[in-house]
Amino acid sequence: MANELLVKMVDIDKWYGRVHALENVNFTVRHNEVVGLVGDNGAGKSTLVKILSGYHKLDKGEMWFEGKRVNFNSPAEARQLGIETVYQEQALVPFLSIARNIFMGREKTKMLGLVDGRKMKEESMQALGRIELHLRSPDTLVESLSGGERQGVALARALHFRAKLIILDEPTVALSIKEAQKVLEFVELIRNEGISVLFITHNLYHVFPIADRFVVLAHGEKVGDVEKEGTSIEGLSKLIISR
Amino acid sequence: MRSIIYHRSFSVFIAFTAVLVLFALLCPGYYFTTWENIKIILVMVSEFCIVVLGVGLLMISGEFDLSISATLLFCSLIFLRLSQTELNLFLSTLIVLGVGLFIGLVNGVITIKGRIPSFITTLGTMMLWIGITNIFSPPGAERSIVISVPLFSTIFTGKVAGVPVQFLWFILIALILGIVLHFHKLGCWVYATGGNKEAARAMGIKTDLVKTICFMLVGLLCALSAIMQTIYAGTFFVGIGTGWNLMAIAGSVIGGASLFGGRGNMPGIVLGGLMISVIENGLTMLGISYFWAWAVYGSLILSFILFYMYLEKRLVVVGRR
To answer: How many domains does chain B have?
Structure first.
């Protein structure tokens, strides 16, 4: 089972009206692998990811997760199987505490649906500890955290709920160099926990050091699928602008 | 300790206390603090604040409602009409509460399914319900309500140990909603929905449902308040809830709720509502024109908002230290 693929997407097609957003795309993620999904704006990266995370339905093709054929009707279905997507702007609620954000929608409850605040705080701190993010208190409001710390909270949340695949959509955009570095460290720690990461970006300098493999999209088609050993940042750049 | 001082509702508490002290000292013959006046205040305050509780929650969920006064008016009319039939009063009450829920549901569904800002939706429904009420309003002679069941009057307008029962209703509802908002998962969802709808939805929270529940809560509380006011006045009167749309929003904002949703808390909303209605009574006691009340509300809203902005800046500094 070990060499079985975590994600296998076969001949995926997607149209938005008359726009052919994805054309015959084959895409895989192995267990415990960091895949960099790169490409220029409008290349189809987000479309592919939204299909994988249940936001959009595919028009043609097959999707497999852990060896089972899947067809998600909602993000909740994808999440149930262990696919967590972390969007920078959409991930957290600024006026809520860290603990409440981590357990948002999945609150720990006692009787009658009353929340178990203490348990949520304890487990939040544990979850943050797993990616070595040490924040003062689980009661801190997310709005007072830095961009990198917010990404960390979202990742800790995914980790805590036993995600098998974490999808990061442009996690380093709009972050300072130092903060972006922090996020890359988080990804490293997540991989060490045996979880696969799909890292979407158009910044090759961020994704190159941490990814094992790169998938390049251009105009809705896959134009490259290369292991890190076989390529370089220059090589990937050429692929991205090849069409 | 510091977190208490910087808490929004703490500043409202201070301001509210100051207002009470001021009125107590300024009123001629100290009439403001007589038990007679306090009883009147408790009734007035409760009728208004019961509605504010719902409005505050709705604002935290990121929406607001301009159709409160219209809902009160319409529910009052329905209650009048039902009380003129042979129908059991308790059953009539249930129907009126149902009408309130329905009005909230309509607001919610139009806002959510139509993707219309609730400002516009409730502007429309406000005019709709006021219009319908006016069309079907009976002539003056048929507007009085006689409650033939003493128990019924006691439940909604009676006294328990000398305290108007309306106030007990208000406290009870405030407690329940406070627990729901701060200690129940539904409360977490309300904050999440108002604070970042996309994030909440991505985490599987049914944000549409949460908002609809909040709209329906406002409708329900309006219906309850309408019943209380109609029985208390002994008549259906078209002035019911006049000005409450904006006063309720003012109360919530003073209490720390934001027009953009996601913030606010129950103690603040309660105090904000109390402040608005106590000022109304206090100014009347002082013999100052009702119009002054609005000038005072305006000044209060502005000063509190500016103060909250200031607090916010301080908080960020404190949070990062």
So the answer is: 1
Give per-residue pLDDT as tens, B46-84: 999 999 999 999 999 999 999 999 999 999 999 999 998
**Neighboring chain B residues of A90 at a CB cutoff of 8 Å:** 196, 198-199, 202
> Does B319 reside within a domain?
no
Cα-based angle A191, A36, A143 (whole degrees, multiple of 5): 70
Q: Which of B196, B207, B308 to mutate to test the interface with A (most CBs of A within 10 A)?
A: B196
Which parts of A7-129 are beta strand (E)? 7-16, 19-29, 34-39, 60-65, 68-70, 83-87
| Residues spanned by the domain of B59 | 46-137+144-272
Residue B197 maps to a domain: yes
Residue B22 lies in a domain: no
Are B192 and A93 an interchain contact pair (Cβ–Cβ within 8 Å)? yes
User: For residue range A14-44, what is the model confidence (pLDDT) as tens digits?
Assistant: 999 888 899 999 999 999 999 999 988 888 8
Using CB atoms, which residue from B183, B187, B196 is nearest to A93? B196
- CA–CA gap between residue A174 and residue A171 (Å, rounded): 9
Evaluate whether residue B117 is within a structural domain: yes
Conformation bin of residue A114: beta by default, left when phi > 0, alpha when psi is -120 to 50 = beta
Strands (E), B147-212: 159-160, 163-164
Distance, in Å, from the CA atom of A47 to the CA atom of A220, rounded to the nearest integer, reads: 9
Site of tokens 């909040």: B214
Beta-bridged to residue A225, according to DSSP, are A215
* DSSP letter assigned to residue A69: E
pTM beyond 0.90: no
For residue A194, the 8-state DSSP code is: T
